[in-house]
Amino acid sequence: MLICLFILVSSAQGSRAAETITPYSASQFADEGDSVTLSCSYTGSVRGLHWYRQYTGSPPQFLIMDSYGTVTEADPPVAGVLINHIKDNSSVDLKISSAAVTDSALYYCALQPTVKGNPLHAVQKAV
Protein backbone atom coordinates (compact mmCIF):
# COMPACT_ATOMS: atom_id res chain seq x y z
CA MET A 1 0.00 0.00 0.00
CA LEU A 2 1.27 3.45 -0.91
CA ILE A 3 1.88 5.91 1.92
CA CYS A 4 1.95 9.68 1.39
CA LEU A 5 3.91 11.95 3.73
CA PHE A 6 3.68 15.72 3.39
CA ILE A 7 6.12 18.23 4.83
CA LEU A 8 4.70 21.64 5.56
CA VAL A 9 6.61 24.42 3.86
CA SER A 10 7.64 25.47 7.31
CA SER A 11 9.06 28.95 7.39
CA ALA A 12 8.83 29.00 11.16
CA GLN A 13 11.30 31.62 12.27
CA GLY A 14 13.46 31.49 15.31
CA SER A 15 14.12 34.33 17.70
CA ARG A 16 16.07 36.16 15.01
CA ALA A 17 14.75 36.87 11.52
CA ALA A 18 17.93 35.32 10.04
CA GLU A 19 16.84 31.87 11.25
CA THR A 20 14.63 29.99 8.80
CA ILE A 21 13.88 26.34 8.08
CA THR A 22 12.65 24.91 4.79
CA PRO A 23 11.78 21.35 3.70
CA TYR A 24 13.70 19.83 0.79
CA SER A 25 10.46 18.59 -0.78
CA ALA A 26 6.76 19.19 -0.19
CA SER A 27 5.74 15.52 -0.26
CA GLN A 28 7.16 12.05 -0.29
CA PHE A 29 5.66 8.69 -1.18
CA ALA A 30 6.70 5.30 0.15
CA ASP A 31 5.51 1.73 0.22
CA GLU A 32 4.44 0.18 3.49
CA GLY A 33 7.51 -1.18 5.29
CA ASP A 34 9.94 1.21 3.57
CA SER A 35 12.34 3.39 5.51
CA VAL A 36 11.53 7.07 4.90
CA THR A 37 13.67 10.16 5.46
CA LEU A 38 12.12 13.65 5.55
CA SER A 39 14.65 16.49 5.38
CA CYS A 40 14.74 20.22 6.05
CA SER A 41 17.53 22.76 5.70
CA TYR A 42 17.97 25.77 7.94
CA THR A 43 19.86 29.03 8.08
CA GLY A 44 21.29 30.81 11.05
CA SER A 45 22.52 29.57 14.38
CA VAL A 46 19.63 27.51 15.71
CA ARG A 47 19.12 26.22 19.24
CA GLY A 48 16.59 23.48 18.65
CA LEU A 49 15.25 21.54 15.71
CA HIS A 50 11.79 20.04 16.16
CA TRP A 51 9.65 17.57 14.23
CA TYR A 52 5.86 17.33 14.53
CA ARG A 53 3.20 15.17 12.88
CA GLN A 54 -0.39 16.23 12.24
CA TYR A 55 -3.27 14.01 11.24
CA THR A 56 -6.29 15.51 9.51
CA GLY A 57 -8.63 17.11 12.06
CA SER A 58 -6.11 16.84 14.92
CA PRO A 59 -3.57 19.26 16.41
CA PRO A 60 0.15 18.78 15.67
CA GLN A 61 1.84 16.10 17.77
CA PHE A 62 5.42 16.59 18.97
CA LEU A 63 7.66 13.73 17.78
CA ILE A 64 11.28 14.52 18.55
CA MET A 65 13.80 17.37 18.81
CA ASP A 66 17.54 18.00 18.81
CA SER A 67 18.74 20.84 21.01
CA TYR A 68 22.50 21.40 21.11
CA GLY A 69 23.06 17.71 20.37
CA THR A 70 20.66 16.48 23.04
CA VAL A 71 17.74 14.50 21.61
CA THR A 72 14.39 14.74 23.37
CA GLU A 73 11.62 12.37 22.36
CA ALA A 74 7.87 12.63 22.83
CA ASP A 75 6.50 11.13 26.04
CA PRO A 76 5.79 8.33 25.33
CA PRO A 77 8.31 8.06 22.47
CA VAL A 78 6.99 7.46 18.97
CA ALA A 79 8.30 4.08 17.82
CA GLY A 80 10.48 3.99 14.73
CA VAL A 81 11.20 7.74 14.65
CA LEU A 82 14.75 9.14 14.78
CA ILE A 83 16.24 12.60 14.27
CA ASN A 84 19.53 13.25 12.51
CA HIS A 85 20.98 16.76 12.76
CA ILE A 86 23.67 17.26 10.12
CA LYS A 87 25.42 20.45 11.18
CA ASP A 88 27.89 20.48 8.24
CA ASN A 89 24.96 20.70 5.79
CA SER A 90 22.68 22.80 8.05
CA SER A 91 19.99 20.16 7.74
CA VAL A 92 17.85 17.97 9.93
CA ASP A 93 16.30 14.63 8.96
CA LEU A 94 13.37 12.76 10.40
CA LYS A 95 13.83 9.05 9.81
CA ILE A 96 10.83 6.74 9.92
CA SER A 97 11.76 3.08 9.91
CA SER A 98 9.27 0.63 8.48
CA ALA A 99 6.61 3.13 7.39
CA ALA A 100 2.98 2.19 8.01
CA VAL A 101 -0.31 3.57 6.73
CA THR A 102 -0.66 5.34 10.08
CA ASP A 103 2.42 7.41 9.17
CA SER A 104 0.47 9.15 6.38
CA ALA A 105 0.26 12.68 7.76
CA LEU A 106 1.50 16.25 7.51
CA TYR A 107 4.96 16.67 9.07
CA TYR A 108 6.43 19.94 10.35
CA CYS A 109 10.06 20.79 10.83
CA ALA A 110 10.41 23.80 13.12
CA LEU A 111 13.00 25.88 14.95
CA GLN A 112 10.76 26.70 17.91
CA PRO A 113 8.10 24.70 19.75
CA THR A 114 4.84 25.08 17.84
CA VAL A 115 2.32 23.37 20.11
CA LYS A 116 0.92 25.53 22.90
CA GLY A 117 0.96 23.83 26.27
CA ASN A 118 3.68 21.46 25.10
CA PRO A 119 5.72 20.47 28.16
CA LEU A 120 8.81 20.63 25.97
CA HIS A 121 8.29 24.38 25.70
CA ALA A 122 10.07 24.61 29.05
CA VAL A 123 12.88 22.34 27.85
CA GLN A 124 13.50 24.60 24.85
CA LYS A 125 13.51 27.77 26.94
CA ALA A 126 15.77 26.26 29.57
CA VAL A 127 18.53 25.48 27.09
TrEMBL record:
<protein>
    <recommendedName>
        <fullName>Ig-like domain-containing protein</fullName>
    </recommendedName>
</protein>
<feature type="domain" description="Ig-like">
    <location>
        <begin position="23"/>
        <end position="127"/>
    </location>
</feature>
<dbReference type="Pfam" id="PF07686">
    <property type="entry name" value="V-set"/>
</dbReference>
<keyword id="KW-0393">Immunoglobulin domain</keyword>
<dbReference type="GO" id="GO:0002250">
    <property type="term" value="P:adaptive immune response"/>
</dbReference>
<dbReference type="InterPro" id="IPR051287">
    <property type="entry name" value="TCR_variable_region"/>
</dbReference>
<dbReference type="InterPro" id="IPR036179">
    <property type="entry name" value="Ig-like_dom_sf"/>
</dbReference>
<dbReference type="GO" id="GO:0042101">
    <property type="term" value="C:T cell receptor complex"/>
</dbReference>
<keyword id="KW-1279">T cell receptor</keyword>
<keyword id="KW-0732">Signal</keyword>
<keyword id="KW-0675">Receptor</keyword>
<dbReference type="InterPro" id="IPR013783">
    <property type="entry name" value="Ig-like_fold"/>
</dbReference>
<dbReference type="InterPro" id="IPR007110">
    <property type="entry name" value="Ig-like_dom"/>
</dbReference>
<keyword id="KW-0391">Immunity</keyword>
<keyword id="KW-1064">Adaptive immunity</keyword>
<dbReference type="InterPro" id="IPR013106">
    <property type="entry name" value="Ig_V-set"/>
</dbReference>
<feature type="signal peptide">
    <location>
        <begin position="1"/>
        <end position="17"/>
    </location>
</feature>
<dbReference type="InterPro" id="IPR003599">
    <property type="entry name" value="Ig_sub"/>
</dbReference>
